[in-house]
Design a protein that fits this description.
Number of strands: 0
Structural class: mainly alpha
Helix content: over 70%
C-alpha cells in the first residue's frame, strides 16, 4: 500500500532510476566502443514494459488454459512440416 504523500517521491524515484540505468548502459557502450548497443540501451525501459505484458498474458493463460502451449512457428518447423508432407505423399504413391 502506498502512503498518502509518497506518490510524488515514488514517481521521482521511478524516472530517476530508469534514467540512471539508461545513462549507465549508454556510458558502458561508449567506453567499450560498442556503439551499436546504444539503441538497445535507450529502449531498455520499453523492453521491460513488453516483458511485463508478456508475463501477465502468461499468467492469464496458465490460469485459463493450463494445458495450452502457444508455439511460434519458425523456419525450421515449416521446412520440416513440408518435408514430412512430401514424404507422406511419396509413401502413398509407392503403395499404389
Amino acid at each position: 500500500m502506498m502512503q498518502s504523500g509518497s506518490g510524488g517521491l515514488n514517481i521521482f524515484n521511478f524516472f530517476v532510476g530508469n534514467f540512471l540505468l539508461v545513462y549507465l548502459n549508454i556510458t558502458a557502450a561508449m567506453q567499450s566502443k560498442q556503439y551499436n548497443l546504444i539503441p538497445a540501451a535507450i529502449t531498455t525501459p520499453f523492453y521491460w514494459v513488453l516483458m511485463s505484458i508478456a508475463s501477465i498474458v502468461a499468467v492469464y493463460d496458465l490460469i485459463k488454459k493450463p494445458f495450452h502451449w502457444q508455439k511460434t512457428a519458425h523456419g525450421l518447423i515449416l521446412q520440416r512440416e513440408s518435408t514430412s508432407i512430401m514424404a507422406t505423399e511419396t509413401q502413398l504413391w509407392q503403395r499404389v
